């Protein structure tokens, strides 16, 4: 069975990981969010009482 021979597949796997770690990862880390999270003041809203129409 050719699947049991790790020789070509191990090279392909390691080369893809090297490509990912050296080329793709810095490009994806350099992306920025268009709307960065902002610090908002925490304000708690007082809930309004619920008035049932049949009471």
UniProtKB/TrEMBL annotation:
Homology family: Belongs to the ATPase protein 8 family.
Cellular component, GO annotation: mitochondrial membrane; proton-transporting ATP synthase complex
Record flagged with keyword Membrane: yes
Organism lineage: Eukaryota, Metazoa, Chordata, Craniata, Vertebrata
Species of origin: Tinamus guttatus (White-throated tinamou)
Residues passing through the membrane, by range: 6-24
Protein name: ATP synthase complex subunit 8
Record's signal peptide: none
GO biological process assignments: proton motive force-driven ATP synthesis
Chief localisation class: mitochondrion
UniProt keyword annotation of rRNA processing present: no
Alphabetical UniProt keywords: ATP synthesis, CF(0), Hydrogen ion transport, Ion transport, Membrane, Mitochondrion, Transmembrane, Transmembrane helix, Transport
Membrane topology note: Single-pass membrane protein
């Amino acid at each position: 069975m050719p699947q049991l021979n790790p020789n070509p597949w191990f090279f392909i796997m390691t080369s893809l990981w090297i490509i990912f770690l050296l080329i793709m990862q810095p490009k994806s880390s350099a992306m920025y969010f268009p709307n960065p999270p902002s610090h908002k003041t925490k304000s708690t809203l007082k809930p309004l009482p619920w008035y049932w129409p049949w009471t």
